[in-house]
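Feature request, filed as a ticket because there's no other form

It would be nice if the structure record came with a short human-readable summary line next to the tokens. Right now we just get the raw output. Example of a typical job, pasted below so the devs can see what we mean:
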Amino acid sequence: MTLTPSLPWWQNAIFYHIYPLGFCGALTHNDFRTEPVDRIQKIVEWIPHLRELGVNALYLGPVFESTFHGYDTADYYRVDRRLGNNIDLARVSQHLHKNGIRLVLDGVFNHVGRDFFAFRDVREKGQASEYCGWFVNLCFDGRSPFGDSFSYEGWSGNYDLVKLNLANPAVRDHLFNAVRIWVEEFCIDGLRLDAADVLDADFLRDLRLLASTLKPDFWLMGEIVSGDYRRLANPDMLHSVTNYECYKGLYSSLVDKNYFEIAWSLNRQFGPEGLYKDLMLYNFADNHDVERVASSLGDPALLYPLYCLLYTIPGIPSIYYGSEWGLTGKRTRSDDSALRPCLDLRALQVSSPQPALPSVLRRLANLRESSPVLRYGGYAQLSVSHQQFAFQREHDGERVVVALNAAPETAPMSIPLPCAAARAIDLLNGDERFPVRAGKLELSSIPPRWARVLKLE
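Raw output as currently delivered:
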């Protein structure tokens, strides 16, 4: 995919998100004794598929030594033996970069697992451990739920995730040195920061300074579920954050036949007075923590207008592995493995729930590549009803109208335009042409469960 050199790479990015322990079929539990097994090379087999989708950036979930799921880190300096070793990950990175695909890793810095070396030392030596100051609210006046002779703070009440004291200079040095090694050994292009909404603000500022010294275009994106995104996404901290507000609206506006929901969010975020109109937020329809969007929608035909919207709104689109075929998956109270499966590429290419969807995503990727206005243009709402929605993107004098129809039948639209135009050409559907009359773009029909992306002339 051709990138615009004058802009940061992430402004032209289309992400693919893999949760590697699940994707590679790794064992559920790490015994810390077994020799490394090179499962992570499986990613190399998928690179042609990623290129076919138009993907140019890979966000890889936790890859470093952990006890169970990757977010309970045991060693920041060593690739999880269930996935391979450092050399194996370096080879994957080389293949990705040779194919024009950037690599972003998960930075899990808020907490560690109970097998992390410093916490093991505290468990063994008690108050005599030199690492007592590495953990938040470590206290020897009580006992932990695991029966330790001390208490401590776990992330969100999870005591298998021990909260790090990021104000401790030694902790910062350990983590920042890990980031330096990841850049040197694996040539990573950025980090997605787990639980960024509870990370120490000074830690984030120092990480941003470090990132600028490692690579001038090193990208930092944070996980934040709610609240003001600018608290973290600003010139001193992170470049971007997860757009959970639009994640919810992307599917619920379709399920509820209520485009007003997502329209309200998009206008609030990116409209003329939008809170985040100068930010490139990370947009997604599903990920490793939430149900597959195909399960949330119910009707798989709704995947098509959903992805049309995902690829045309402001921000950076991301596809969660397997969802490009419409895979379903729901979590239970005790098990989320259905969200993080091991997949076989050849089997999916032969038989999948939505075999036509990958080619649609490629069309949408091509559209973004050929239309700078869709990558970093401004946003203005034009028309909204329960199952039809239209908005305009504008950049450097180019204007594109996106018109969506979520209904199961063809729908016409008469869309008021904020500025003069003579006609519109549909860039998504074979250059069909439509007239503008009396300041309104007259669309005789929008196909069911589909969209038109129209360049105004």
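Something like this underneath would help us a lot:
DSSP finds 13 helices and 21 strands in the chain.
Residues 324 and 358 are 5 Å apart (CA to CA).
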